[in-house]
Amino acid sequence: MPVYEYTALDAKGKMTSGIIDADGARAARQKLRGSGIFPVDVKETQEKETPEKKTTRVADIARYLRRVKPAEIAIMTRQLSTLISAGFPLVSAIDALVPQTKSHRLKTVLAQLKDAIVEGQSFAQALSQYPGIFTPLFVNMVRAGETSGTLEIVLERLADITEKQQDLTNRIQTALAYPLFMCVIGTLVLFVLLTYIVPSITAIFLDMNQVLPAPTRLLIFLSGFFKSFWWVILIGLIGAAIALHRAKKTDKGRYAFDKTMLAIPAFGVLAKKLAVARFTRTLGSLLENGVSMLIALDIVKNIAGNVLISNAVEKASREVGKGQALWAALNEGQVFPQLSIQMIQVGEQSGELEAMLNKIADIFEKEVENSIMRLTSYLEPVMILVMGCVVGFIVLSICLPIFEMNQLIK
Description:
- It is a single chain.
- The protein is built from 16 helices and three strands.
- 26% of the residues are buried.
- The N and C termini lie far apart (95 Å).
- The protein is mostly helical.
- It folds into three domains: 3-46; 70-162, Receptor-associated Protein, CATH 1.20.81.30; 179-410, Type II secretion system (T2SS), domain F (Receptor-associated Protein, Up-down Bundle), CATH 1.20.81.30.
């Protein structure tokens, strides 16, 4: 059944908009009038995502701006789980969510999902038509829930996973917000000092018939360089960012970037722990919901966010298929931390692998959060010290010629 976007007037004369499914535009208008609102504009929306769909760069940007946020998916998933647990049929539950959803994009997708299910598709098949919104993990867990008859439990678990990942991301962003803000403000202040303030002060030194101190000469050089070539620096930074972005799209470039990230002192350890936490939590959830080990490994190999870890998981999947234990297969890649290998080994031997995988995720996520909080507490005094040194250098470079002039006058 087609889905229509509408703009209408309610009984009080206020403008309202939304989506509605109907057999045609005339049927959509009649359905709207029957609900007590008067349509102004009704148009069909045909916005299904497929992997083969080609879009222009402008369309990609528009789609990015209209993307569905993970938090919205988590809320929708938990509401759907609650409705199904209360006895609602799947189609009725989805239909009840449409008016409660704030995102216009998600409203459209939910309406199209309902139509696909009514036409005979399974819920997982309908979700797979929207790869930009529902991840392979989401689709496969829903498929496992439909097969086992525990869809409401699977949906609740999916909501938990999404919310935990979102909470961790929010805490990390909150911890880094202040240092990044201070870094940006400090950079702008230094730029203004070097390009506008310093030249007006050092101009009086250029008429002196004596050699200026080395710090003053360096300051005048830096000031003139930034004032004349700031645009070159800006273009260089933008060009470097574009080149890095394009390089990351290639296999070799992505591999080199991920390898470099893991090799950075301190930060590489955090990136590895975060990737392993994402891997173990997802694998544990899949296994708990009845997905076989090999299929689960095939699903989670691409969610770690790092090519080296993904390659290690892919190799481990092949070895597990040959009968090797998971901990031994992962250990061969020499990427996973030894703590995670040891805990997986204990989980396999005790028959509590799923619980142990979730425990690994909890431990590593907590370690990452604590490390970032500790790092940000170190960053603040370091940034203040650096800013003080730079400002001190500027003040010293300006004062030295003045001191020399006073000595000549005496």
